[in-house]
Amino acid sequence: MIQQGMNAATRTARRYHWHSRTLCSFTEEPHVAVVGDSQGEILNLVHRDAIGAQQGIVGLLREDPAHIEKAARHLVMPRRHQVASSDINLKRLGAVLAVAHDQEIKTFADALLMPGMGPRALQSLALVSEVIHGTPSRFSDPARFSFAHGGKDRRPFPVPTTIYDRTIAVLGAALRQAKLGDTERANGFKRLHAFTQMVEDTFDPCADLDKTIAKECADSAGHGGRSIFGWEKPPTQLTLWST
Asked: Do 125 and 191 meet the contact criterion of CB atoms below 8 Å apart?
């Protein structure tokens, strides 16, 4: 089987040759190997461990289109890219920022997941823990979760690639340990979410959206900030941010 892929940006073509004399299944590792220049990790939906993802895709395709359409109609998205205060529950975001950046509070939250966790990584993990363990009512302001890893269009800030990789590494380590019967780190995400909610309920941690975004942009280069516009450069002037 020979397929050709076009790269519109460089106006070049890439040809794929698929050769499998011992083909047993088109959906479970039908190819013998993938040969070419390494581009890093790739999404392989025909890997033997991807059966769950395959079943999920098939299940979605089998859904009644009218049911999906009805659910989609509830999604009302503004015709803009920037994140506004009206999009976010600032108290919920404030609780996450307090857990990650307030030194006294962070000391307790840090111990729940991994000793020595940096504040910016903890900020992302606190939001990720809510995605994993939060109840449906916690997702009424989905724009808040963009403060975990930013956006490729720099809204609300460029993607902090080092934090992004750190989050994946921590999640991966937790899953690997859980498979071996050690659920301590996986349970840490649940404790982190509960602790963040406790801060939200006990204190009044209202976030200043403009200052939060300004700080993220100022720190972006140091976190490997990247967007569709390229890598972020260090700011020429120091941006002060008060908590």
From this structure: no
Paired tokens of 119: 């504040």
More confident residue, 86 or 53: 86
Whether residue 240 is predicted with pLDDT greater than 50 in this model: the reply is no
- The SS3 call for residue 204 is coil
Task: Give mean pLDDT, residues 150-162.
Answer: 95
The confidence band for 242, taking pLDDT boundaries of 50, 70 and 90, is very low
Which residue is it, tokens 């993802």?
53
Q: Which two tokens stand for residue 173?
A: 């380590």
CA atoms of 92 and 99, how far apart (whole Å)? 11
Question: Between helices 119-133 and 103-113, what is the axis angle to 10°?
Answer: 60
Query: Rounded to whole angstroms, what are the CA distances from 229 to 80, 155, 225, 226?
Result: 18, 12, 11, 7
Type of residue numbered 28: E
The H or E element that residue 68 is part of is helix 65-72
Residue 206 Rama label (left phi>0; alpha psi -120 to 50; beta): beta
d(CA 198, CA 139): 17
126: β partners: none
Q: Please say if the pLDDT value at position 238 is more than 60.
A: no
pLDDT at residue 149 in the model: 97
Rounded CA-CA distance 48/130 in Å is 30
Burial class (CB in 10 A: 0-12, 13-18, 19+), 88: buried
Q: What is the DSSP letter of 140?
A: S
Residues composing the chain: 243
How many CB atoms sit inside 10 A of residue 125's CB? 28
